[in-house]
Write a structure and sequence with these properties.
Elements: H1 18-24, H2 28-37, H3 52-56, H4 62-74, H5 89-95, H6 99-106, H7 123-130, H8 133-146, H9 160-167, H10 170-178, H11 195-216, E1 226-228, E2 231-233, H12 251-259
Antiparallel strand pairs: 1-2
Helix pairs in contact: 1-2, 2-4, 5-6, 5-7, 6-8, 7-8, 7-9, 8-10, 9-10, 9-11
InterPro entries: Ankyrin_rpt (IPR002110), Ankyrin_rpt-contain_sf (IPR036770)
Keywords: ANK repeat, Repeat
């Protein structure tokens, strides 16, 4: 009888190390002690594949995060490591709007600034989405300096310019057009819209939200109690439907009549 070879056991990854925990707890002196004195490995990954440098890009205290990132880079932390989603430390810094850390990372020559993650998003895509135009400008200048393609698409066909217009970050979009020389005629692969059409669509969406918030502030008269399908509806929960509200001042009365 032939023996069936069993597959090798899966590699167990640490949930996190003491250095990971020190970064998450924002303990700067402990990070310095572990790195400088105990010489712990700065490139160890946690259960999600994140290094301590990546965690320094997401903690709330941005000043401490910058100082921790400086300590880790000085100790030789490798910048192009990826987590479980394929994201690098630069991607995390761009996603969370860490301007000072982005400037620090861009000074390193070994950094690949146009590396995409599992979703096809590069650091420039993340910067265009986060809405910090200074980060977009630093990356756009680096793209222009090294002759990189600023129109790289993600898995859904979006370029950084399309994402900036879709999210309403028009200053970032202007920087991408003027500095990174992004193309305004390209269309995404999801809705097949170009930059101008996304800008128009975003503007119309914001206008509808503004009108809806103004209409929703109109409530029913406090003395009225409405009954609908045997349930008692408090007056403060009665709101005017913006899609069916006329421009006249009798909107509340008409909505009340319909509920009755």
């Amino acid at each position: 009888m032939e023996r069936i070879a069993l597959p090798p056991p899966p590699i167990k990854r640490l949930i996190k190390t003491a250095l990971h925990q020190a970064v998450l707890d924002e303990r700067l002196h402990q990070v310095r002690l572990l790195v400088d004195k105990h010489r712990v490995c700065t490139d160890t990954k946690d259960v999600h594949g994140r290094t301590p440098l990546m965690l320094a890009c997401i903690i709330d205290n941005q000043q401490l995060g910058y100082r921790m990132a400086h300590i880790l880079l000085k100790a030789g932390a490798y910048l192009n490591l990826r987590d479980g989603m394929g994201r690098t430390a630069l991607s995390y810094a761009c996603m969370n709007g860490r301007e000072s850390i982005v400037a620090l990372l861009l000074k390193e020559d070994v950094l690949d600034i146009n590396e995409s993650d599992n979703d096809g998003n590069t650091p420039l895509h993340h910067a265009a989405t986060c809405g910090n135009p200074r980060i977009v400008e630093m990356l756009a200048q680096a793209f222009h300096k090294f002759g990189l393609n600023g129109d790289r698409r993600n898995n859904l066909g979006y370029t950084a310019l399309l994402l900036a217009c879709k999210c309403g970050h028009y200053v970032s979009a202007h920087i991408l057009l003027t500095v990174a020389k992004a193309s305004p005629t390209l269309r995404d692969g999801e809705f097949h819209l170009n930059a101008a059409e996304w800008t128009r669509r975003r503007h119309q969406h914001q206008a509808r939200l503004s009108d809806r918030s103004q209409i929703a502030s109109v409530s029913c008269q406090p003395s009225l109690t409405l009954y609908f399908q045997r349930w008692r509806v408090p007056p403060e929960r009665c709101r005017v439907d913006p899609a069916e509200t006329p421009a006249s001042g009798q909107a509340v009365g008409q909505i009340t009549d319909r509920l009755w």
